[in-house]
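Hey Z.,

So I finally got round to the protoporphyrin IX containing FE thing we talked about over coffee. Here's the setup:
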Amino acid sequence: MRHRLVLTVLALTVVAFAQVAGAEVDREKLLKEPGVYATFAVFKVGDQWSQMDKEARAGGVAEVKKVFQKHADNLTVDTYLLRGLSEKADFFLRVHSKEMLHNQNFLVDLMGTTFGKALRNTDTFNGITKALNYVPKFPDDLKTELKTPPPQGNPYVVVVPVRKDADWWLMPQDARTALMKEHADATLVYLKTVKRKLYHSSGLDDLDFITYFETAKLDDFNNLVTALLQVKENHHNKQFGEPTLLGTIRPLDEILEILSR
Ligand code: HEM
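And the result:
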């Protein structure tokens, strides 16, 4: 009883503190909901950054952190290191919000900082989360399997942009559902080691989908993609990757520290 009272007081204190501290967006909710806009912004750090003295770089890092704080009420940003695994880019950001305008305002502010001015924006992908298209028509046992909880605390990220061909979109919904069932069947053994998220991009980008994955087992991910390249749906992939982003999930502070070395 006393235990429950202490827990209630604690919960109320947390709620009161959150209200005083301001209305930061609910990250977990934003990452689950349909109708959320995502922008993937990929950057390469220019030489001018490493040529700046240590003090100026420390000031630049503080400026970047302020921009993240300024926009925390409207959006959530996930940060990933690419340096060492890619020659084209050093890091990327995954921004989620309820309005594409919020994503743009955040990225414009970031690019206006001293650090931002030293960056080259090598790629940007835009998309939106949506309700499931095909799963509702899948057999119940497959639907249940697809609900397997994904792995947590994954160190690796992979992002694969995908574009389908005209035949895919011209196919009746039932025929596409059958091909997507084959796709889903091929992935089942990887549900425990690969976490996934799908973004729809048609009309918002030159892509149709941004596919996003987290895993601790890149060998499983490699086998998963090999399995998917062998199902009939793959005939309709006009673009698969190009670029594929492979990186590690790291906090902003760590990324800024590594890129300031
Ligand atoms: C554990 C791994 C995976 C699982 C469980 C999985 C499962 C699914 C399911 C169930 C759908 C249908 C969603 C709906 O009903 O709207 C889907 C869609 C899709 N998946 Fe996967 N998938 C996996 C991995 C991959 C990989 C590795 C790729 C490509 C790199 C990929 C690309 C896609 C694309 C592009 C769609 C959208 C197709 C469309 O709506 O036309 N998936 N996936």
